[in-house]
Amino acid sequence: MKADWNQKEFGFETRAIHAGQKPDPTTGAIMTPIYLSSTFVQESPGVHKGYEYSRTSNPTRKAYEDCLANLESGKFGFAFTSGCAASTTALHLLKAGDHVIASDDMYGGSFRLMDKVIRHNGIEFSFVDLTSVEAFKSAIRPNTKMVWIETPTNPTMKLVDIKRTAQAARAKNILSLVDNTFMSPYFQRPLELGADIVLHSTTKYINGHSDIVGGALIVNDQELANKLAFLSNSMGGACSAFDAFVSMRSLKTLALRMRQHDQNGRAIAEFLSKNAKVERVVYPGLPSHPQHALAKEQMHGFGGMITFYIKGGLPAARMFLESVRVFSLAESLGGVESLIEHPAIMTHASVPPENRKALGIDDGMIRLSVGVENLEDLLRDLTQALDKA
Ligand code: P1T
Q: What is the pTM (predicted TM-score) of this model?
């Protein structure tokens, strides 16, 4: 009899390897097979083994969703073809006339989805600096139905107090959603802090190897789970069995990877903060971060995402970005390989210039996704590239 992999009895690393998974009943295969089947045979109309059609549910996807939900301290997981598909599905919990309060700083594509797509469904958005719980409370209207939190924010690394914001939301019957992409459940578990929904771009740390685009939603409440299951089936954004298999395989090493991202991240943040070419480093693990105390309170580590400002504006930034040899100049984050990018021109180009200016997403801003390579190699690479800038 296999264990049920409950959170009280088993540690994160054990659950990441086993939760949701059983040896294949027909062969004993230890790895959940990739069930490449669009449909499932029924004995009699409506009499089946729990699966009818793979848009609705698929055994490989189910194992992955159960594992991910377990790691986020949730009961129900839903896997999608991208983080944006997960966001689109979650935003369809709302109807015309509803109001959403969202972080003023978040992934540019999430902002674009709200501002240029979902808004046309008659849903209202307020983009608020959620680092202040008071600012959140002041933005609440009678029709506010959801607060959309990203913490740390992408790319300015601002933190939102999940516990206090979720508490204030609950008091007004407002759903709280936390995009936990930057931290992964290894370092931050929003459901434990009172949030209703966790969202991931699983493209990032969850899958961790830059070979899948995916997304996920995790909840604890049965009624909310029923609504999301209905939406996922109706809207058709669920991920394929192959993507589920690869992402579930990646979960097995999530703890190992996150510990190394964190170790390298801390060292590089400190190194950058001492370099003469660097104006300012924003990393929750540095005591100079204005919310370092909150980081220690709600996160179990600081991870591998670092934002910094290089002296000399765009010419220096370009020279630096063209000079790195171990880091790769590319969008995305959370993979084992170190990535570097320029938010104003790349990931956040869809944010209007006046918003970028107000948030400090300027020409000197550079974002690092520190990978798990040899730390000395990464430091040497940054040193030589900064020397050229
Ligand atoms: O790219 P996709 O899997 O659809 O996920 C969108 C998304 C959602 N939330 C956060 C916090 C994200 O960072 C992303 C995607 N971000 C990038 C591609 C990036 O380079 O920042």
A: 0.97
